[in-house]
Structure formats: C-alpha cells, structure tokens
Amino acid sequence: MTAAIIETNGLTAFYGDAQALFGMDFRLNQGELVAIIGANGAGKSTFMKALTGLVSVERKQIFLNGEHIGGLKPGDIVRKGMALVPEGRRLFPSLSVEENLLMGAFAKRSGPWNLARLYKMFPILEEKKHIPATSLSGGQQQMVSIGRALMSNPTVLLCDEISLGLAPIVIKEIYESLPSIIEEGMSVVIVEQDVMLAKRVSQRIYCMQEGRVSLEGASAGLTREQISHAYFGI
Amino acid sequence: MIDTIIQGLLLGGLYCQFALGLSLMFGVMRLTNIGHGDLIIFGSFMAIAIAPLLGMNILMVALVLLPLAYVVGYLVQRTMLNQTLGKDPLPSLVVTFGFSIVIQNTLLQIFSADPLSLDAGGINVASIQLSQDVAVGVLPLIIFAVAAASTFGMQLLFNKTSLGRAFRAVSDDREVAELMGLNSSHIYAIATGIAFVLIALAGLFQGMRTTVSAADGPMLLLFAFESVIIGGMGSFWGTFVGAMVLGLSQQLGFKFDSSWGIWFGHIVFLAVLIVRPNGLFPKTKGC
Amino acid sequence: MSVNVSVIRITRASKASISLGVALCLVAITLPFWGESSWMREFVEIACYFIFAMMWNLLAGFGGMVSVGQQAFFGLGAYALLVMGNFLGINPFLSIPIAGVLAALISLPVSKIAFRLQGGYFSIGTWVIAEVFRLSIANLSAVGGGSGTSLTALRGMDRTFRENTTYWVALACVIMTIVLIYFFLRSKQGLALLAIRDSEVAAESQGIAVQRMKLAVYVVAAFGCGIAGALYLVTNLRISPDAAFGVNWTAFAIFIVMIGGIGRIEGPLFGAIIFWGLNKFLSDYGTWYLLGLGVLAIVMMLFFREGAWGFFTRKTGLEVLSIQRRLQR
Question: Which of A66, A76, A60, A54 is nearest to A27 (CA)?
C-alpha cells in the first residue's frame, strides 16, 4: 500500500461558532493527484484552509507524512512541506514577480525548485520578473502563484481553484505543467469547479457537500449521475 | 531670502528624522502611533539623563541609546501593540494615546516642568560661513545629512533586502505572508524596533539643538504627520520632500511674523490635503 | 408556514431603569432648592465632559470615526458664545444653542478636508485642524489672544440666579443629549449608522448613503461639542485658547468612554460618574493621577474592551437604554 501523505480523520472546523466541516475523512497517497469538487459553499476552500492552518482545527485530526499537524500555525505547516496555491491567487501587489517568487522560499526548505527551474517551466515570468506581479494577466499571475508555492519545495501542493477566471487555453497550459511536478515526487490536491477537468487530470475524486464528503472514488469509475447526485445532494 | 530657504531645508531635515519612524510603522502595519512625538521627547530626556554617565560623549550616548531603543520598540510591539492591530483603528489609537499621556506625566514626574537641553559641547552653536551673508549651523547640517542617510537607508532596506520584502509582503497580505512561513508578530516587532531607533535618533538631535520639556511631544507628532502626508504615503523619499516643504513653510511663516510660523506650516499642510489628497509623491494604494 | 414574531424594542428591566432615571431627573431639577452651589458647579463641569464624551462616542463608537480633534468645535462653541455675549449683547444662556449651531456650520467645510483622510490619519488630521483654530484665535487680540479673556456679559446678574440657571441649562443639555441620541440610534437612521459601523461596503450595497450619514454624524457631534464648550464658558466665566482647544478634552472623553464602554449609550454615563469620582478623590495627586488614567485606558483597551458597563451588561443581560431589537414569538 502506498504511503499516505495527507490523512484526516473526522476533521471538524469552525468559523467562530459556525461549524463549517463535519467529520471529513480524506487521504492523499504518495504521487497521486486527487481532486476535490463541490458546489460553492460546500466547504472545499475551508478544507484547504484547515489543512494549511488558516482555520482552527483540533490537534489530532490532520496527519502529514504521519505527523500530527492539526493546530499548528501556517508557517510551521509550510516548513513541514505542505504549500498552498491560494484561491484568487493572492499575489503581493507591492512586490515584483521575482520578489513574489522569492517570498515563497522564505521557509528555506531544500529541494530541486529554485528561480532558474521555475523560469524554465514558465519562461514568460522571467521576461517580466521585475514587473509588479499584479499587473500581469490572470494566467501569468496563476503561474506566479504556483511558482511561489513551489519555491518552498513542498512534498504536497494544494491548488485551490487555479482555473478560476482563466481562458480554456491558459487552463490547459497550467494543468500541463502539473504532471512534471508530480514526476519529481510531489503529491497534489486540486480543488476544481470544472468537474470534467477534475475527472480528466486526477486519479481519485472527493465530492463535498455542506461540509461533508458526499462521494469518493477513482475518477475513471465514477458516473455522471453519481457525481451530480453527490454534488447537489439530490 | 536665501538664508530663510536654507534654514527651512535644514529644519526639514530634522522633521524628516521625526517622520521616518511614523512612516515606517504605518507602512508596515497601518498603525498610527499617537505617542510618536512623546517618544521622541522621551528619547531626548533619556539622552540628557545618560550623557553625564558617559562623560558627555554624544557618540557614546548614541551607541548606548539606539540599541536600547530597538529592544524597547521590539518588546512594546510584541507585548502590547500587536494585539491592537486589525481593521478597527480604535484600539491602536487609544493605546498609543494612553502611551502619550503616560510618557508625558512620567517625564513630568521625574524631570518636572523645567526645559532641559543636552550639552553638545559647542556643536550646537558652531557654524560654517558659506558666503559673505550666509552662515549655516554645523549641527543642522549634521542632522540634515543623517536624515538624508536614514531616508536612503530605509528606502534601500525596503526595496533591496529580504527583510524589506517581508515588510512589504506582510503589509500587503498578512495571511498569505504567514502561509509562506513568515511570523508576522516578529516582523511587526522588528519594524517597530527600527522605528524606535529612528525616533531615538530624532530625540537625540532635538535635545541637542534646543531645550525640551515634557509636554513638547504632541507638536512633534503633528510635524511628523504633516511631513508624511504632504510627501505622500508609501514612500520614504516622499516623506523627505514633505518634511522639506513643511520646514520651508514654517520658516517663511516665521520670517513674516514669529507667531505665525507653525500656523503657516499647518495651512500649507491643509492646502496640500485639499489640492492633492494623496500627497506630492504618493505610492501606495491608500490607507 | 408563517410564524408570529414580534419585535421587542424595550425590555422590562429597561422600562424599570428608565422610570428610575426619570425619577432621578425630577430630583435633580429640585437641587438648587436644597443643594449647595458647589454641587451645582461640579455638576455643570461634569456635564461638559459628559456631553463631549457622548459626542466622541457617537463619532467613534457608532460612526467609526475616531477624532482626536473634536476640541476644535468645543473651543469654537466657547468663543462663539464669548463674541455673542461680550460684543453682540446676546444673553449667554440663549447663545448656548446658537453656539452649537455655529460649530455645526463650521464643521461642514472642515469635514471636506478631514474626510480626505482615513483611519489613524483622519484622527491626527482632525487634531491639526483643531490646532489651526487654536493658533488662529490665540493671535486675535480682540478676544484676548493667547492668554484668553472673561465673559463679561453675565456681570451684574445675581449670583444665585446665575448659578441656578446655569445648572438647569446644563441639566437640560445632559437630558436632551441622552434622549436625542437614544431616539436617534433606535430610528431607521440609527440602524443605518450601525450597519455602516459594521461594514461600510455592505451598507453601501444596501442603498445606505454612507458618506451622507457620516457627514450627518460629524455635524451632530460638532453641534454637541459646541454646546459643551459654550456651557463651559458660562460656568467658568473665563476662557483661553489652550483651555478651549486643548486636546485634554478628547483625552478625558476617550477615558470616560473606554472606562464606561464604547458603542453603548450607558457607557459614557457610567464612565462620567466613575471619572467624577476619580477626579474628586485623586486629582490632588496631579501627574500620578493622570498617569494612572492613561494606564487604565490602555489596560481597558487591551483587556476589557467592552468597558465596565459592557462587562456588567454581558454578565447580567441587563440593558437600560437598549438599542437592540429582540425577536419574540
């Protein structure tokens, strides 16, 4: 059995008094690309935030490489090798493209990813490296955001809705860069609105609905009917 | 007239030194420190108090005072001010206002209401003759030079160092900066530490060039603030220019009538606020 | 499926407390007949602090605008009354509301400048504006310049009559302030203001004219501070730019509101009473007293943000001047 990189057991999370996640069981195995789908408000982004320490959870419910990380601060979690490409990209407007990438390396983890490597993967970024990051196009900003996460040399990459607001051809370009990242030994979780896209690129899918997992299985095996049933809860 | 302009610019140098710390704290954490001016005066009094222990050697005073200021600033931010940060400006305003009152009354209690000065060994009266009619004081020149160097240093720090990058990142988006592994509490505290060093330097200069008394603080806060606003937020060189404009305005006002100097500075500030609300050289997206 | 729900605006405890308050007011009105004149003078002075604090609370606690320059309107109110009394021969007691109106009118152009700043910079900006007024008036020898002058318009009036009338006017101002703010905050406009305080963007999207609302609050606060300043001159009989435009008025207002509880009507009331008590027993300690006030304000802000009244309300669930709307089946 392949090693579990991420494992959550009965994960619950709260925004203040309001419960947002109700007992999520999740597993990401080494070298996998797992997709999480669900309607808006289903809790997908909340789950990402819970994994990375932006939302409070209890200590024992999240395991990264066998280690409990629930309750740790985001900075500690990134140092243990989990990086997030946040929803909406959230680049630093006061920083240039290169400076944004360099911020990703703040955690000082060793590994194959550095500026040179990123510029090879996304050549357009090298051209624009001194330009304020937020003046780039949507697709280019997404590349910067992914690159920034990669600069921390993570073992797990979490991508929250990276196709949002992008043209199909740009989405294709971005998703084409993922396999080479996985080949290096990284495991990836993507949160996707586009169900067909998610089915195509991932090995397994989790569908979320109202803060719970409503469906889980190998992407190839799931039917459209199963998915829409789980997606909409009808 | 030339004399007035030169005096104005040199005064601007002093005001720039006053203003840099305020600009820094606001730039990194959106924190407005109402006790800023009182901290400068506190610095003056500290310098005056420890100078006799160090044989009145100003350089030694600086070497002792500045690192101490960094530590104090770091601790104040870490233990008290960090909790006041957030969308609501009220907590930081009330707490720093409280600082202002505490500092003023502490100084009043310790040093009473008498104005004191730091004996700079004659440097405050030495002057250089530039031409037949114009002489400039050595101390004002030194202050101007240090202020310019401080501004240059701050700009360099922000734009070229990894700490500066961290400052800009955390002020842009604290949550994402923490996702990168940055400890915002620590970064904020470093910023305040540096701000306190700039403040201590300003206090040292103020104590050397004139007499200081416990209640002087608020006026200095207003000068620092006006320099920042006139110059435009988000840029240290902007603050430098803003301070020059303020210094010049005040000197012109003084020349007209001794009681109108500060008033004229306020009027120029208000005028800039009306005509160019983002200042002369704005760089940030806004408060 | 429909549910019968009614909106309760005032609880039974609230009603009881208000009845008590009305009784207290009736007693207070009779004070000149059985009390000492020093009590009345003290009351008037506290009234000035209280009204100023209520205005600051309205601006900061409800309007979300932290002004450190309200003393501008306090001073303008005082000097307006001085001019009307000494130079225009208008009865000072009648001038008090006029002074308030004048302060409110001046706040209109002032707001055009002040509103260009936000947050902390707005605060200091208002302070600068107050300083401009202070320095300008300090240079006008006609009103006494930097050392100030006396209100001569009340000379020749019988002392007891003057003190009694001043007291009643102050009492009226205090009651009016509480009543007006209470009804304003319970009204539709008041609800709009609370919405703006919580989220300007959300409020705007609901069709609330945010800028107009903020301006209205700013003008009302100026009016109140102007009245407080005019009242201060009437009881003190002497005024100077430093006393009229001093930032200590704001400092004490902040203290009163923080101790009592910000964003509530009862807060400043509570805070003013505590402040009066502290002042009475500790002000002899001069700098130590002020130092203590400063430390207390910091501690309250860091650890007891809701203030003494807020703490009491939370523990007991009692509210006197409630502006909440409760649902009841």
Answer: A66
Query: From the list B105, B229, B267, which residue is nearest C291 (CB)?
Result: B105
In the numeric block, the tokens 């160097």 are attached to B149
For the whole model, what pTM was predicted? 0.90
Q: What are phi and psi of A226, to 5 degrees?
A: -60, -45
Q: Quick check: B3 contacting A, CB < 8 Å?
A: no
Position A82 confidence tier, pLDDT thresholds 50, 70, 90: very high
**C287, part of any domain:** no
Cα–Cα distances (Å) from B211 to B118, B127, B221, in that order, read: 8, 19, 17
The predicted pLDDT at position C322 comes to 62
Burial (Cβ within 10 Å: 0-12, 13-18, ≥19) of residue B147: buried
Cα–Cα dist B9/B251, whole Å: 9
Three-point CA angle C168, C170, C174, nearest 5°: 115
Q: Which amino acid is at C124?
A: I
Could you give the angle at which helices B2-29 and B162-172 cross, rounded to 10 degrees?
70
Boundaries of domain holding A119: 4-232
Distance CA B277, CA B287 (A): 12
Q: Which tokens in the block code for residue B180?
A: 């990168």
Q: From C55, C51, C49, select the one nearest C217 (Cα to Cα).
A: C55
pLDDT band at B86 (very low <50, low <70, confident <90, very high): confident
Query: What CATH number has the domain bearing residue A21?
Result: 3.40.50.300
State how far the Cα of A118 lies from the Cα of A186, in Å rounded to an integer. 15
Angle formed by the axes of helices C71-86 and C248-260, nearest 10°: 120
Chains that touch A (3 or more CB pairs under 8 A): B
Q: Do C127 and B222 touch (CB under 8 A)?
A: yes
Q: Where are the domains of chain B?
A: 2-114+131-275
Burial B214-227 (b: 16+ CB within 10 A, else e): bebbbebbbbbbbb
How many domains does chain A divide into?
1
Q: Which of A137-141, C153-157, C228-232 has the lowest mean pLDDT?
A: C153-157
The CATH number corresponding to B2-114+131-275 among 1.20.120, 3.30.700, 1.10.3470, 1.25.40 equals 1.10.3470
Residue A232 reports pLDDT greater than 90: no
Say how many CB pairs under 8 Å bridge B and C.
123
Cα B139 from Cα B142, distance rounded (Å): 5
Whether residue B166 lies within 8 A of chain A, CB to CB, comes out as yes
From the list B102, B225, B286, the residue facing C124 with the nearest CB is B225
pLDDT digits 0-9 by tens, C262-321: 877 888 988 999 999 888 888 788 888 889 989 998 998 898 887 777 777 777 766 666
State how far the alpha carbon of A200 is from the alpha carbons of A29, A33, A204, C259, in Å.
18, 11, 10, 62
- Residue C285 falls inside a structural domain: no
C-alpha triplet A119, A121, A125: angle, nearest 5°: 40
Confidence check: pLDDT of B286 > 50? no
Per-residue pLDDT averaged across C80-87, rounded? 92
* pLDDT value for C106: 96
Q: Do B80 and C302 lie within an 8 Å CB cutoff?
A: yes
Residue C254 inside a domain? The answer is no
Residues above pLDDT 70, as percent of chain A: 97
* Tally of domains in chain C: 1
Residues B196-244 pLDDT 10s: 999 999 999 999 999 999 999 999 999 999 999 999 877 899 999 999 9
| Closest C-alpha to C183, from C16, C18, C2 | C18
The predicted-structure confidence for B46-79, as pLDDT tens digits, reads as follows 999 999 898 888 889 999 999 999 999 999 999 9
Q: C21 is in which domain, residue-wise?
A: 11-247
**How far away is chain C from the Cα of B131, in angstroms, using its nearest Cα?**
36
